[in-house]
Amino acid sequence: MEKALLQAYAKTAVQVGIGLKKGQTLMIAAPIEAAEFARLCALEAYLAGARDVVMRWSDEQFSRIRYQHASEQALCDVKPWQLQSYLDYVKAPGGVAILNILAQDPQAFLGLDLAKIDKASAAVRRALAPWREYTMNDRVAWSIVAVPSRGWARKVFGDTADAEEKLWNAIFKVCRMDAPDPVQAWEEQTAFLARRRDQLNAMELTALHFTSQNGTDLTIGLADTARWEGAKSTTPDGQAFLANLPTEEIFTAPHKEKTEGVVYASRPYVYHGDLIEGLWLRFEKGRVVEYGAKKNQKLLCMLLDTDEGSRSLGEVALVPRQSPINQSGILFYNTLFDENAACHIALGDGYPSTVQGGTALSQEKLEQLGLNHSLVHEDIMIGTEDLRIDGIRRGEGTVAVFRDGGWAF
Amino acid sequence: MEKALLQAYAKTAVQVGIGLKKGQTLMIAAPIEAAEFARLCALEAYLAGARDVVMRWSDEQFSRIRYQHASEQALCDVKPWQLQSYLDYVKAPGGVAILNILAQDPQAFLGLDLAKIDKASAAVRRALAPWREYTMNDRVAWSIVAVPSRGWARKVFGDTADAEEKLWNAIFKVCRMDAPDPVQAWEEQTAFLARRRDQLNAMELTALHFTSQNGTDLTIGLADTARWEGAKSTTPDGQAFLANLPTEEIFTAPHKEKTEGVVYASRPYVYHGDLIEGLWLRFEKGRVVEYGAKKNQKLLCMLLDTDEGSRSLGEVALVPRQSPINQSGILFYNTLFDENAACHIALGDGYPSTVQGGTALSQEKLEQLGLNHSLVHEDIMIGTEDLRIDGIRRGEGTVAVFRDGGWAF
Prior knowledge:
5-stranded antiparallel sheet; homodimer; 14 helices
């Protein structure tokens, strides 16, 4: 990939994604396959005035060896330094932010013992829960961007010599890197999303009713004091950041006990390095009571059984079918992109920022408002070309939110 | 590089270098450029019964960006998790061992502010000193192996397309990977070194007198109760390991106050990612009182000024000119190889194992015996083709140790 474009992408990640502040420490979590881009992000961070950059390398190929050969006991033995390696920076001079670079192979762990991986992942999530509080509550700026890896590119474009180049081009397109000034293009996009968000907040919705010819008939009751979020988030210190690059979604908090009906996933979903396809869920009183999948139902079962909160919803997000990512016609096999191509719901943890004043509330208070809590937060794409969403308003009838898969207003 | 050879090399590193025990945790410190080999080492470790493998990635190219752009204050701000990330494994079930994979570019930091790098390195060494106690005292098994990187290969063989392949071949040759059974070949080599070590110990030497036509005229008084080590080291639990692969040296502890005379380095020396060439040192009462270098004298000065102990010797090692590494005629620009091509002395920290019962002695006791202590331990090659070493024996005259650069007995 052309270096100038890569540099511009790194600059966009640091300036728009993180909104890096002078004197701040930036953690970059990156797979070693993405080293070239990670280094450029580090350089852009220093050029933007970072105090320091901390690189956190990972390697899926090593993880695969480890998952294959280490015992469940060893995999679940998460040492104290792993949490410490995040928390040590929370009080760093100038504060900390974290940029996650993804380059996953959607089937990195194909054929492995997924139950073992599930337990290992849960152990890591449990151990890192105190750090997760910082990102889930927007106490630190965080952002996720992606670059191609060989395995990923081949899954998307087939085993051809130019698969990686094609994936680069697709990512650059949906990340608006073809705009004359990508940073400016994202300012415009986030301003647009902010207007949609404000319109939705003004509607005072208490529930959403999703219907589609694919069989979906789902009513999601929203948390008490739920508020719509979209585009930029803000830390308590006022640092505006874009948690996902690209982002096309407006999202809010379901009430964990108020979802009813059936929903069919419209895209496959990657979990633990493998694909769940043809997934459906039936909810009663907010919880999944019945479910199925054409492929990897066992993996779906593991996800649902993670903990008390993994059978309820933590997020509902609206993305019109006009989203550039959907328009690209590409199935990315990567949640960062696929969730921004279609409306989605997330099983698991809710974002405190999606209830009124939520980032300052205790866990107990949040749960009283109906916000779900879990170790997982996994997006499932449900948007279709004919999706219809009716909003149920506080006290006074319904309002058309989506018609034919796009905004109705 | 052919995969079967790489695998054999990984197996040699894990079985001979570390002597991995079943149920042990292996830390692998590896530059991301050496990922393929690091993964093979991880796999070999699991196959040999490791409980788990912990990968510690690093990246010189990122380090270069960081050294260039971060302030000295930021670079010296070493967080507690960094030490913790080692110590957390000390009490792991089955114990821990550490394999260091090198792939350094000898001039990775060329042109940077080396004084800043020096301070940053010293800060890291200070912070990690409690972990260093474990390796310096052989309380955990540790080993160092190397694989080519592009920058390193080009420094050794010039900017040609096959430089990396040439360096692989050179490394494999001196690591005896061309033997029918490399593991067996190393058992034989270490048995040979052990015999030399025993012969030297039987001589009861109190000092060594080095002379060469290059101007070297150096007398190194040995520490009280100094004992020669070579080939395998052993942990308190009885795990035999080979700290360097390859290894051709027999070494012992100088007395920190008893070196006198002048010594000229016979090979350039890499420090802080740059080369010191044409180096000489003059000692009085064990300390460097005068010194010079044809290139990068400033860097030598930094090394000598690190701390109280960095002007005295912590090791003297004997390597005959017949060493396969010297015979290869290759200047590796990497201490792991170059120190095994020629006799060398180390400025800085001494190995407790090189005085009688030293790994069980307190720091105070060790210093009373004359063992040097420092944050650094830096090998300087002094062996020449005409090197003569006379050993001064306890009470009764001298004995020929080296003649014409090789063993005299």
